[in-house]
Design goal:
115 residues; two-stranded antiparallel sheet; 4 strands; 17% strand
Length: 115
Amino acid sequence: MKKRILVLFMVVAMLLATSVSAFAVDIEALANEMVATANAEIDELIADAQLEAEAVESNGELKEIIAQLVEDTNGISEAAIEKAAEEGIILECVLVKVEIGHKNVKIDPLVVGGW
C-alpha cells in the first residue's frame, strides 16, 4: 500500500512539474512576442524619423520630428508594458541612442524583465 501511495505521489509530482514548465514556456513565448512586436514598431518609427530628418531645413523642424518620435515610441512602450502586466509579465525599457538628423536621441525599446 505504501508503494502505491509513493508511486501515485511521484506521478502527480511529475505531472505538476511538466504543466508548470509548459506554462513557463507559454509565458516566455508571449513575453518575447510582445517585445518583438513593440520593438518592430519602434524600429519602423525610428527609420521613418531618420528619413524625415534628412529633408529638414531647420533645427525647429528637426526638434518637432524628434519630439514626435519620442512621444510615439514612449506610447508604444507604455502600452506594451501595460498589456504585459495584465498577463503577469514584466517588460522594461532600455534606453538606446539613435541618430536623428545630426542629434543623438534616447529611445526606449523593450526587454523582458520577468514574470
